């Protein structure tokens, strides 16, 4: 029998975010919990104890959390002069937790090494030799009468 694997600990902690942003520990813990929950939907393997790509998953999750933290930062300013007006909006709205490229990266981390995961095709054309029009006609003509 194999010995049980020791618990590797949490994938991401609030302390992992402190070098990059000033986030309270409570807020960081909640953001990490949400990010892990969303990541588990697209890549269920990342929470498994035997998951080997922990550092890569941590980097992807950290980037998404930091982007989420910065969302909404900025300002909307309006300038008017007579009948003319201009609005400049530098806020960053939060749309989704992960970019499509991050979802692809997380899913690649869950693939086994022998799974290329590429496109495939099903050949629907038979490989029998094709008959010419004349051969088809001669085959269909009944000469037995």
Verbal overview:
This is Head-to-tail adaptor. The termini are far apart. The chain has one domain (14-140). Strands 1-2 form a two-stranded antiparallel ribbon. The chain has 4 helices and 2 strands; from the N terminus they run ααββαα. The model has no long low-confidence stretch (mean pLDDT 82). The chain has helices at residues 25-42, 54-70, 100-110, 133-140, and strands spanning 76-81, 84-89.
List keywords for this structure.
two-stranded antiparallel ribbon, mainly alpha, flat, 2 strands, 145 residues
Write the layout of secondary structure elements.
Blueprint: H1 25-42, H2 54-70, E1 76-81, E2 84-89, H3 100-110, H4 133-140
Antiparallel strand pairs: 1-2
Helix pairs in contact: 1-2, 2-3
Structural class: mainly alpha
The average pLDDT value, as a whole number, equals: 82
What percentage of residues falls in helices of 4 or more residues?
Answer: 25-40%
Low-confidence stretches: none
């Amino acid at each position: 029998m194999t010995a049980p694997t020791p618990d590797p600990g949490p994938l991401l902690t609030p302390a992992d975010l402190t070098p990059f942003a000033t986030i309270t520990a409570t807020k960081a813990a909640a953001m990490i919990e949400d990010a892990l929950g969303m990541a588990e939907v697209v890549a269920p393997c990342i929470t498994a104890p035997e998951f080997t790509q922990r550092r890569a998953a941590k980097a992807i999750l950290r980037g998404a959390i930091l982007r989420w933290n910065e969302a909404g930062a900025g300002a909307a300013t309006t300038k008017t002069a007579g009948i003319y007006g201009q609005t400049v909006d530098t806020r960053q709205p939060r749309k989704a937790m992960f970019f499509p490229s991050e979802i692809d990266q997380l899913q690649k981390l869950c693939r086994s090494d022998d799974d290329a995961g590429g496109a495939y095709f099903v050949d629907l054309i038979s490989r029998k030799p094709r008959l010419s029009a004349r051969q088809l006609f001669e085959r269909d003509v009944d000469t037995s009468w």
